[in-house]
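Long-time lurker. I teach an intro course on protein structure, and each term I like to show students one example going from raw sequence to a predicted 3D structure in token notation. This year I'd like something fresh instead of my usual example. Would anyone be willing to generate the tokens for the chain below so I can use it in lecture? Attribution to the forum is fine with me.
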Amino acid sequence: MDVLCALLLLPCALMLDGLLGEPPERLHPVCWMGRASTACEKYARSRWKLERPATALATGTLCVLVLHVLFCLPVLGFVAFLSHVHPLAGCAGAALCVWLCMAPRALAEHARAVLRPLARGHLEQARLLLSRMVGRQTAELDEHAVARACVESVAENCTDGVTASLFWVCAGFCMGGMPLAAALCVQHRLANTLDAMWGKKSDRYLYFGRCAAYWDDVLGFLPARITLFFVVAASLLVPGTSAKDALIIGLRDHAAHESPNSAWSEAAFAGALHLRLGGPAVYAGRLVAHPWLGSGTKEAEPWHIARAIALMQATTRWAVLCLGLACALAA
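-- Reply from a regular --
Happy to contribute to a lecture. Here you go:
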């Protein structure tokens, strides 16, 4: 029964995502995480003066710990209770948690929403829809830059929004069964959410958000590197992509980015799609000189977005297959 549950867990979560997509905002746990982190920060700033770096660092670290307890412990208890009732009930509860934490269907839908107007020549609409996917300013981007930024978002979120969650499900299952699989998946999604909200190098968050940023880097370290090989394997299945170049460029350019994790999948996508990704971008009026990844063309086209979506989906399937088998072997 344990082996069966292990084999069913990730495919069931992926099936739920494919059938249902993301839940509405009022029911989405990531939205709950965002609201809880905002309330936690507001309370902390009203209670303590955070002008001193040490105080801001300690307070931000405490907030991260409190939020992890608030979200991860109930999930651990919920799935443990279901597993006690019946192993298949525990599997269903864990699959539900994994579905709520990963979002390959939503990522594909957001990218297609940019692709459609861009392919019809409606650049302004494509820029507006792209702004919902990326943090950079999009108002001045030409059609090639819009397509390139959309591909970059798909590539980066392939790790953050899909394979990293699946990795921590597998790691949790191997260490503690269904309850820990669900809890560690939720922990990664929370860490990624806190990094997006607090992990900014601004005066407000430089110290307060440092723990959130570092913890997200720690949790993303192994998944980012494993994802490179999932992308290479996926490139064998997606027409028009190169597994050889995905591997070569991924290994060559993964360290070019200032982030320790994000360039692994971006560089692999750049190689597979024969593109150059990254480069300078404007964030809140400030030019950030990101390095270029890859040796292909910078003139991305709408069909590059479609191919990036297919590559992300194939990468997801490889991750489900390989990590699901790893769970079964550990059962």
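Some talking points for your students: The two ends are 9 Å apart (CA to CA). The mean pLDDT is 92.
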